[in-house]
Amino acid sequence: MRLLLMGPPGAGKGTQAVDLATSIGGAHISTGDMFRENLANETDLGKLAKQYMDAGQYVPDEVTNGMVRNRLAEPDAAAFVLDGYPRTADQVVELDDILASLGAKLDGVISLVVEDREELVQRMIKRAETSGRADDTEEVIRHRQDVYDAETAALVPLYRDHGILHEVDGIGTIDEVAARIAAVVDSLRG
Ligand code: ADP
Questions:
Q1: 20 to 30 A Cα–Cα from 28, which one of 11, 18, 42, 70?
Q2: 173 C-alpha to center of ligand 1: Å?
Q3: Is 172 helix (H, G, I), strand (E, B) or coil?
Q4: Is 185 helix (H, G, I), strand (E, B) or coil?
Q5: Which residues does ATP bind (predicted)?
Q6: CA distance 22 to 125
Q7: Which listed CATH number (3.90.180.10, 1.10.260.40, 3.40.50.300, 3.40.50.1820) goes with 2-189?
C-alpha cells in the first residue's frame, strides 16, 4: 500500500507515520528526517537544507524532489508512508510523475485535521523542550504554521478532488488517533 500522511506541523504526523508504516509493512519516508540525517552527517545536501530549515522555510523543490525520486526508487519503497512530502503544488505534480515512472500510484491520502492553531503551537513548544531542533523556537514554529497555510493547506482539497482523501480527527490521544487511521487503512484494504 502507498499512502501519504498530511497535516500541519504539530498535528502528530511523525508519530503516527512510524506506526502506520509498520502496520502496512512499508517504509516510513519522512523528508524532514532525511534532511535532518543529511544535516547530522554534514553532507552538501544537509548544509544547503539547513539554512532553510532553521528559518522554518521550505527547502527548494529542485532539491527536495530529487531526494524523494531517489528514495522512492529504492527496493524497500514498494510500499510506503510518505510523511512531509508533497508540501507544494509542484511537489504534487512531481510525485505523480515519480510514481508513474515506477508504474505505481497512491492508494490513499490521510489528512490529520487539527483546526486549532494554538493547540498545534503549544504541542510544538512542548516538544521543543526535548527535540533539540533549531527550528523549534516559538517564532519559527509560528512561521512554519504560516508557511503551511500559504503553501500546503491547499493540497488537501486537491487530493479531495482526486477522490483519495481521508480526513482523520487529529485531536485525542496518540492511541485514539492511531485507531482512526487504522480504520481508514482497513477500509482501503477493502
Ligand atoms: P514539521 O515537524 O514542521 O512538520 P518536518 O520535520 O517534516 O517538519 O520538516 C522540517 C523541515 O524540513 C521543514 O520546515 C522544511 O524546511 C524541510 N522540509 C521537509 N519536507 C519538505 C518538503 N517536502 N519540501 C520542502 N521542505 C521540506
A1: 42
A2: 24
A3: coil
A4: helix
A5: 10-15, 127, 172
A6: 28
A7: 3.40.50.300
